[in-house]
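[audit] Reproducing an earlier prediction to check determinism. Same input, same settings, fresh worker. If the tokens differ from the archived copy the diff job will pick it up downstream; this log only records the rerun itself.
[audit] input (137 residues):
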Amino acid sequence: MSDQPPTKDMPQTEQEWLDKLGPERFNILRRHGTERAWTGELLGNKAAGEYVCGGCGASLFESDTKYDSGSGWPSFTAPVESDAVTNIEDNSLGMQRVEVRCAKCAGHLGHVFPDGPGPEGLRYCINSASLDFKPKE
């Protein structure tokens, strides 16, 4: 799936990824799947902290950029750093979209849309299962 080779500290084979992630996360992060809307455990999370990649632990989004978009998936106005994610043109399912991937492990996170409230006008619509949350200490 990945356009980038994994680093030595990440799984090297699809079976190693499956063993590390489990079936749902593997389907989303490595097979470009998506969770059903309104089912993600981080959707309603309002705690202060950091959202990191569920595949490799890379820092992706801060809680102060998260907002309720009404889409059914966690939404963010911007990544923690512009190079934390990569954007890939996605013309699957008969639509033109922009896929968002983790820049470190190339795991599929979700999509970005030009209808957000932030200064850049972007909505990062991210699968909850592709993320882990680290509460602020």
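[audit] rerun output stored. Observation attached for the diff report: The helical segments are 14-21, 23-31.
[audit] end
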